[in-house]
Design goal:
This protein starts with 28 loop residues before the first strand and ends with a strand. Helix 2 runs parallel beside helix 3. It folds into two domains: 128 residues, Impact, N-terminal domain (Ribosomal Protein S5, domain 2); 63 residues, Alpha-Beta Plaits, CATH 3.30.70.260. The protein is α+β, with helices and mostly antiparallel strands. The longest helix is centred in the middle third of the chain and has 18 residues.
Length: 222
């Protein structure tokens, strides 16, 4: 703004600019289930049987569902959902012939509401002769899934950082002492001329554990 000579312009309002820095804290643990569980729900003659399983890999899903179809050959639907991975980025919801979004999504929603991952839930339905409608189906699949998950013991597991170790037998005790100290898991081991280990170090102990391992003379890390 141009001001007459000798005058200065003073703004009526001063708006401060505030910069906010967001620091993302990495996840250190995840929650899953320890064992299979079942639950049953009935509505107007239809029977819904939920089967919850801890899941190690997506490849297990096909064989689990195949076994349930053999166990329940007269069931009309075998709907399922699973959530996999530390960040839960791998998932699927299957309605198996039920109206779209009425079965798989409600099952997955209850897995997510429980904050779980590496979990599969299959719900087997026996038709009772009365149509339940989409709201009734959503309620049935949600309820039976919730009931199954409520009966299972949950466990919080460490997210691990994978490391490969190669060393001579002479330093075995030293290496094992460090791994035990920091609760590292031995995922794979091969004992030939040298010891080759694949281990998982809990992220919470990553820096301290690697520092100790790197200080061991003769140990190679990858």
């Amino acid at each position: 703004m141009n001001c007459p000579s000798g005058l200065s312009f003073v703004p009526e309002f001063y708006i401060p600019v505030i910069c906010i820095s967001i620091v993302q804290i990495p996840m250190l643990t995840y929650t899953t289930i320890t064992a299979p569980a079942t639950a049953e729900f009935r509505d107007r003659g239809s029977k819904f049987l939920a089967y919850a399983y801890p899941l190690k890999s997506v490849e297990e899903v096909k064989s689990i569902i195949a076994d349930l179809k053999k166990e329940h050959p007269k069931a009309v639907h075998h709907c399922y959902a699973y959530r996999m991975g530390i960040e839960g980025t791998v998932y699927r919801a299957n309605d198996d012939g039920e109206p779209s979004g009425s079965a798989g999504r409600p099952i997955l929603g209850q897995i997510d509401s429980a904050g779980l991952t590496n979990v599969l839930v299959v719900v087997v339905r026996y038709f009772g002769g009365t149509l339940l409608g989409v709201p009734g189906l959503i309620n049935a699949y949600k309820t039976v899934t919730t009931d199954a998950l409520a009966t299972i013991e949950r466990v919080e597991k460490n997210i691990e950082f994978p490391v490969k170790l190669s060393f001579d037998y002479t330093i075995m005790n030293e290496v094992m002492t460090v791994l035990k100290q920091f609760e590292a898991n031995i995922l794979k081991q091969e004992m030939t001329l040298f010891c080759d280990f694949e281990v998982g170090i809990p992220l919470v102990h990553k820096e301290a554990c690697l520092q100790k391992l790197e200080a061991i003379y003769g140990l190679k890390l990858e």
